[in-house]
């Protein structure tokens, strides 16, 4: 599956007893994905943003247990998310009430979802300041990643992972206990965000000068202890890395040492060859 392309879901014919808005309504959005057939689409057919707001058709979205809803144009939601398309056009009770409740969603991520559908961009909402202890820096991005998965928005999910990688590299940040716990509790095993966290931990461990700052070492130990599966994933990835012939990690302690040994061996071999040549001995 090409993750670069957005996905569109089509309603597969519904059973007779579940038809129609305001008649016998479907009253649950759970299991909604299973009713839709997936096919890929190269590009979303989007309008310019001002056109979406020339409408009387707005939807109230309640996120988590927050009472105050987000009110957004229905077409804007449906054009971006197959989930909203299904919920609001598929004969569920939400089609009538124009209210959608995302009880499982973390309210931290929703403003980033709104930023994305308005601008098709995803920016980190937090300040990048090395001197501020900010353990939950990436939590809004992790939350929008989980939300994007819930709303079937692959591109948004990918952008969230990319932005987390950027945030981590900008501040030489490590995943925090809260972030690891949230991502491992709310995403599938081996998800892109889990992989991203494991990569960051492995690179920090391998990079020679990474732990010169002892506080960073403590943060690493805390993070790896946040979740048993995460601990195992990080250890497995380090083990795998040591088996690589070459690697691209800057200042990698494993491969730098190995290259050093190899280089010394080469110098010794060349020296031996020269000595043999000087003595008229054919080197074998
Ligand atoms: Zn950031
Ligand atoms: Zn390496």
From TrEMBL:
Domain of life: Eukaryota
Family annotation (PANTHER family): BTB DOMAIN-CONTAINING PROTEIN (PTHR47843:SF2), BTB DOMAIN-CONTAINING PROTEIN-RELATED (PTHR47843)
Organism: Mollisia scopiformis
Protein's UniProt name: BTB domain-containing protein
């Amino acid at each position: 599956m090409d993750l670069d392309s957005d996905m569109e879901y089509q309603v597969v014919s519904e059973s007779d007893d579940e038809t129609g808005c305001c008649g016998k309504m479907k009253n649950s959005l759970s299991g909604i994905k299973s009713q839709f057939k997936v096919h890929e689409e190269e590009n979303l057919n989007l309008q310019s943003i001002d056109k979406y707001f020339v409408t009387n058709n707005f939807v109230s979205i309640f996120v988590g247990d927050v009472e105050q809803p987000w009110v957004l144009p229905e077409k804007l939601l449906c054009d971006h998310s197959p989930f909203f398309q299904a919920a609001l056009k598929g004969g569920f009770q939400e089609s009538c009430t124009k209210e959608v409740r995302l009880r499982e969603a973390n309210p931290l991520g929703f403003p980033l979802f709104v930023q994305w559908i308005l601008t098709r961009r995803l920016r980190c909402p937090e300040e990048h300041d090395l001197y501020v202890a900010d353990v939950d820096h990436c939590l809004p991005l992790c939350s929008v990643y989980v939300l994007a998965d819930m709303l079937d928005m692959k591109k948004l999910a990918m952008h969230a992972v990319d932005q987390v990688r950027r945030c981590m590299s900008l501040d030489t940040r490590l995943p925090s206990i809260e972030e690891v716990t949230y991502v491992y509790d709310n995403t599938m095993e081996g998800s892109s965000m889990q992989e991203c966290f494991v990569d960051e931990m492995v690179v920090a461990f391998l990079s020679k000068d990474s732990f010169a700052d002892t506080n960073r070492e403590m943060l690493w130990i805390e993070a790896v202890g946040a979740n048993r599966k995460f601990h195992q994933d990080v250890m497995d990835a380090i083990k795998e890395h040591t088996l690589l012939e070459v690697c691209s990690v800057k200042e990698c302690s494993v491969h730098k040492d190995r290259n050093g040994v190899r280089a010394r061996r080469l110098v010794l071999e060349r020296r031996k060859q020269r000595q043999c040549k000087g003595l008229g001995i054919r080197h074998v």
